[in-house]
Each structure stands twice: as structure tokens, then as C-alpha cells.
Automatic annotation (TrEMBL):
<feature type="transmembrane region" description="Helical">
    <location>
        <begin position="246"/>
        <end position="266"/>
    </location>
</feature>
<feature type="transmembrane region" description="Helical">
    <location>
        <begin position="369"/>
        <end position="388"/>
    </location>
</feature>
<dbReference type="InterPro" id="IPR001851">
    <property type="entry name" value="ABC_transp_permease"/>
</dbReference>
<keyword id="KW-0812">Transmembrane</keyword>
<feature type="transmembrane region" description="Helical">
    <location>
        <begin position="451"/>
        <end position="469"/>
    </location>
</feature>
<feature type="transmembrane region" description="Helical">
    <location>
        <begin position="400"/>
        <end position="420"/>
    </location>
</feature>
<feature type="transmembrane region" description="Helical">
    <location>
        <begin position="427"/>
        <end position="445"/>
    </location>
</feature>
<feature type="transmembrane region" description="Helical">
    <location>
        <begin position="106"/>
        <end position="124"/>
    </location>
</feature>
<feature type="transmembrane region" description="Helical">
    <location>
        <begin position="81"/>
        <end position="100"/>
    </location>
</feature>
<feature type="transmembrane region" description="Helical">
    <location>
        <begin position="181"/>
        <end position="201"/>
    </location>
</feature>
<keyword id="KW-1133">Transmembrane helix</keyword>
<feature type="transmembrane region" description="Helical">
    <location>
        <begin position="287"/>
        <end position="305"/>
    </location>
</feature>
<keyword id="KW-0997">Cell inner membrane</keyword>
<feature type="transmembrane region" description="Helical">
    <location>
        <begin position="208"/>
        <end position="226"/>
    </location>
</feature>
<dbReference type="GO" id="GO:0022857">
    <property type="term" value="F:transmembrane transporter activity"/>
</dbReference>
<feature type="transmembrane region" description="Helical">
    <location>
        <begin position="136"/>
        <end position="169"/>
    </location>
</feature>
<keyword id="KW-0762">Sugar transport</keyword>
Length: 477
């Protein structure tokens, strides 16, 4: 008779769930602080540097520009950086979804600019129907209606609902009001993304070609929408505050408290539940240590932001900048979607190996369409924030270097151009690098502005090289 062992009892189903899990040591291992540090170094050796290069780059730039000008580290200047880089961070965050698939969206900047222009015309003219050329208005309405049907056919039901909401807002003339106009602009962006995704995933046109063509087309649409005249957005307080506003001191502390306490509660609960289920989990010491570091940094930053940063005694500037708060909230939401949902895990799997994902039953077409939809929706939001930064919906809104800087931000932050690796935080870190370069150079009047492009290009080249080398090392391992 075969002696009874934990393994045979597991196979027979005689052990309860926690005990069944405990029969396998790998399933119940605890990640302590020491093991977490060892695992991090292991990732570095295997070719996954994560956010380390971008963080080191930030440190180098801060040290360099602090030597170039004593104004760089002033409270007023540091407080301006989030507003200067927020639109890049938002567009880059959308690009992360597409880059994870190994695709690219070159139209995100100009499409976002066109969407922001639609919102500006609707609010400024009081009627989107009369404010836009008749052909363009009906093209938008018919196009959105067709995209709703296309999204349903592609089983992208959430996208269909979003586009339908935008269509209703446009048809009922709610775009004469600011908030509905901004919502409609994001919905139009989602419609553009669904169309992009269809052309890439179903028709089979390479994403580079599709989005390059639309990059050019949306610049023309922007010109038609504005009829050759920029629209001032600084008169609308909410729109203006997207870049230049600050939370009150009280709201700043409430915001940080909610973010930090929510993170601590989530990580503690996750550890407790995993341990109770007999699964691999982080020790409470590791959870609390990480939470303590985050809480300390958050308190210090908030305390600093709560001080008056303005050198003008007649106006007080204090509190967390609104664009920083927007970027943080979006980053948290995107991180949750990518790491804690089935859709997010499927997106990583598709980007890692599309053929393996298809054979595993993942709807690859759906993943591509939804990724492009999110990318263009974020592009529209980024275009809205860019219009806020420029105080107008200008004739070149979203064109020029906007898209290039956004792609550079995602790559510099650590997102791989080859797909399968990247996080929303990469967009934030990369955008900080992109924003700091012109900020620091402009403080040194003796330096020509051309240095901005040179330094940004060199930083991007280094980031791409790190990505290629790390991927090669990972493949060898």
C-alpha cells in the first residue's frame, strides 16, 4: 500500500484549500524585504532595468541644471514643471497601451489637437453645428454613428457606449457647455482610435502607415475646424486650470491622504488575503516598509507644495498643481487596469507573443482595437491640456514635436518599443525628463534653444539603446 503523503492527499482532494496550497513550497513563499531587494537585482542582471535609467537620468539632469542656474531648484520653477509636461505625460500614457502591443500611433497628437479644437469651437461659438463647416459637422456625426456600429461588430461594447455618448452630446448641442464639450472631445478621440484599430487589426495595414496618413489628415481637419482662426481658451477657468491651477492646501492634503491610505489599505489587504489562501505573498514588513517610504515622500512633497511658491507678494501660489494631480490619478487608474484586470493581462500577453496569445484564445483583434481607442482618447485629453497650456486652440495644436516628445517620454520612461513591457508610470517619468530639458535650458539665456532638440534626441537614443540591450540580455537569459 502506498504511504499517504501531503502530495497524495492533495491529488486525492483530501486537504482543504490552504493546506493544498501549502503542499507546494513555491506557491506559499513569502517575499521579505531582503528577498524583494534580491529579486530587484535579479531583474537588473536578467536585462530588465525597469524605471532605473529614467530615474538616474532625472537625477543627472537635476544636478546639471542646478549648476547651470540657481533658479532651477527654486520653488516657483519646480512648481511650473508639472504644467509644462502634463500634456506630454497624458498622451504618452495612451501610447503605452499601443506600444505594449509592439505597435505605434503617430496620429495621437494631431487627432488630439483636432478633438480639442472641436470642443473649443463648440463652446466659443455656442453651437458646434454652426461653428464648424457643414460638411465637417455632418462628417463627424455620420462617422461617429458608423464607428458605433463598427465597435459593436468588433465586440468592443464599452467603446461603442463611449462613442454613442459623444454622438448624443454633439447632436443635442450640449457641446455649448464646457464640461460636456470636453467629454465629447474625448469620445471623438475614442472613435478615432477604434477606426485606427480596425484598419490595423482587421484590414491589416501596418500601424505606422495608418497613423502616419492620419497624422497628416488630422492637421488638415484642424485647419477646417478653426477656419483659420485660433480660439482663446484662457477665458474658461476650468480649462485654464487644467495647466495653471493648484489644489487648495486643504484639498492637497485630502488628495494625498486618500491616495496613500488607499494604497496602504489595498496592499495590506492583498497580503492578508494571499496569506490566508496559502498563496505567495509579501510579508507585512515589506508591505509596511514600502508604504512608509511612499507616505514619507508624499507628506514631504505636499508640505513643500503647501508653501507659497510665488515671489510676487501680491499673489499666493500654493498647493499641489492640478496637472500633477490629473497625471497621478490617470496613472493609478491605468496601472490598475493593466495589472489587475483580465484585459490588462491579455494586453501584456498579446504584446509579448501575439501568436501564442491567439492560440491561447485571446481575441487579438479586440485587444488591438481597444488599445488604439484608449490611445486616441488619451490623445484627445492631452490635446485639451495642450490647449490649456497654450491658452488657445491654435492652428498647429498637437502637431510639430508633440507626438515625438510623447513617444520619447514613454520610451525614456522604460516602455519597450518591441512590445510586452511597460507601465503607465513610464509616461510620467519620461515626461518629467522631456519637460525638464527645455525648462533648464531656458534659464540659461546664453544657451541656444537648438540644444533642446539635441539633448532630447541624445536622451531618447540612449533610452532606445538601453531597451535593445536589455531585451537582448533577457533573451539570452
Amino acid at each position: 500500500m502506498t504511504p499517504e503523503t501531503p502530495q497524495t492527499r492533495v491529488e486525492a482532494g483530501a486537504l482543504p484549500a490552504p493546506e493544498r496550497a501549502s503542499a507546494f513550497s513555491l506557491d506559499v513563499e513569502e517575499m521579505s524585504i531582503r528577498e524583494a531587494v534580491r529579486a530587484w537585482f535579479g531583474k537588473l542582471r536578467s536585462g530588465d532595468p525597469g524605471a532605473l535609467p529614467s530615474v538616474l537620468g532625472l537625477i543627472v539632469l537635476v544636478i546639471l541644471f542646478s549648476q547651470v542656474s540657481d533658479q532651477f531648484l527654486s520653488a516657483y520653477n519646480i512648481g511650473n514643471i508639472p504644467g509644462q509636461g502634463a500634456y506630454i505625460a497624458v498622451i504618452a500614457m495612451g501610447l503605452v497601451f499601443v506600444l505594449l502591443l509592439g505597435e505605434i500611433d503617430l496620429s495621437a497628437g494631431t487627432a488630439g489637437g483636432a478633438c480639442a479644437a472641436f470642443a473649443a469651437v463648440g463652446v466659443f461659438k455656442g453651437n458646434l453645428h454652426d461653428g464648424l463647416p457643414g460638411t465637417l459637422y455632418w462628417a463627424i456625426v455620420i462617422g461617429m454613428a458608423l464607428v458605433v456600429g463598427l465597435a459593436v461588430w468588433l465586440k468592443t461594447y464599452a467603446g461603442a457606449v463611449v462613442v454613442l455618448l459623444g454622438l448624443v452630446l454633439v447632436l443635442t448641442n450640449q457641446t455649448q457647455h464646457l464640461v460636456p464639450a470636453l467629454i465629447a472631445a474625448v469620445c471623438i478621440g475614442a472613435a478615432i482610435g477604434i477606426f485606427n484599430g480596425y484598419l490595423v487589426a482587421k484590414v491589416g495595414i501596418p500601424s505606422f502607415v495608418v497613423t502616419l496618413a492620419l497624422f497628416l489628415a488630422w492637421q488638415g481637419v484642424l485647419q477646417f475646424a478653426l477656419s483659420g482662426q485660433p480660439v482663446n481658451t484662457s477665458n474658461y477657468e476650468l480649462w485654464h486650470d487644467l495647466t495653471y491651477g493648484n489644489l487648495s492646501v486643504t484639498n492637497s492634503w485630502i488628495f494625498v491622504t486618500v491616495i496613500v491610505s488607499g494604497y496602504l489599505a489595498y496592499t495590506v489587504l492583498r497580503s492578508v488575503r494571499a496569506k490566508a489562501a496559502g498563496l505567495a505573498h509579501e510579508t507585512m514588513g515589506l508591505v509596511l516598509a514600502r508604504g512608509a517610504v511612499i507616505a514619507t515622500v508624499a507628506v514631504l512633497v505636499t508640505a513643500w507644495a503647501s508653501q507659497n511658491r510665488n515671489t510676487n507678494p501680491f499673489k499666493v501660489i500654493q498647493g499641489i498643481p492640478v496637472p500633477a494631480a490629473i497625471a497621478i490619478v490617470l496613472m493609478i487608474g491605468c496601472t490598475f487596469v493593466l495589472t489587475k484586470t483580465t484585459w490588462g493581462r491579455h494586453l501584456y500577453a498579446t504584446g509579448g507573443n501575439i501568436e501564442a496569445a491567439r492560440r491561447a484564445g485571446i481575441d487579438v483583434v479586440h485587444m488591438k482595437v481597444t488599445a488604439f481607442a484608449l490611445c486616441s482618447a488619451f490623445g484627445a485629453l492631452g490635446g485639451i491640456m495642450l490647449a490649456s497650456s497654450q491658452s488657445s486652440a491654435s492652428l498647429d495644436l498637437g502637431s510639430g514635436n508633440v507626438l515625438l516628445f510623447s513617444v520619447a517620454a514613454a520610451v525614456i520612461g522604460g516602455t519597450s518599443l518591441f512590445g510586452g513591457r511597460g507601465r503607465p508610470r513610464d509616461a510620467i517619468l519620461g515626461a518629467l525628463v522631456i519637460a525638464i530639458i527645455p525648462n533648464g535650458l531656458l534659464l540659461k539665456t546664453s544657451l541656444d534653444p537648438q540644444w533642446q532638440q539635441v539633448i532630447t534626441g541624445v536622451v531618447l537614443l540612449i533610452a532606445a539603446a538601453v531597451d535593445a540591450v536589455s531585451r537582448r540580455r533577457s533573451a539570452r537569459g
